[in-house]
Amino acid sequence: MSAVEAKLAELGLTLPAVVPPLAAYQPAVRSGVYVYTAGQLPMVEGKLPVTGKVGAEVTPEEAKDLARICALNALAAVKSVTGDLDRIARVVKVVGFVASASDFTGQPGVVNGASELLGEVLGDKGVHARSAVGVAVLPLDAPVEVEIQVELAQ
């Protein structure tokens, strides 16, 4: 077990299986020392636990928890192309998309769920640049979607 997976276990989390693509793409792609993940939905055992817009059907707190699931799914996607999460030198960038009610402006707080998970699991290696974007709708009516870019140790 890698040190990263041991830290996940310490937090009471396990790395899930990689979420199969919903269309014509790969869950993650390596290019040189970087791994780019596709947008990860908060799938748990092949299903979305909640659907709808944040600020309407989904509370910001629920959405923040879903963003954590997205980040966990992103780490699984990274492992699928690297074989070992201990190869992560740092998380470079996180992009979070939040399906938002028209008056909802708390996207950064929602995406904090992903950022905080990466910090808890990776420490200083999890500190990253980030965008948090409100959108009208996401695939499968998911409330949140997260993608990450990581740099690998050489």
Automatic annotation (TrEMBL):
UniProt superkingdom: Bacteria
Signal peptide: none
Endoribonuclease L-PSP/chorismate mutase-like domain mapped to chain residues: 5-148
InterPro entries for the chain: Endoribo_LPSP/chorism_mut-like, RutC-like_sf
Organism whose genome encodes this protein: Streptomyces alanosinicus
Protein name, as recorded: LysR family transcriptional regulator
Pfam family, any one: YjgF_endoribonc
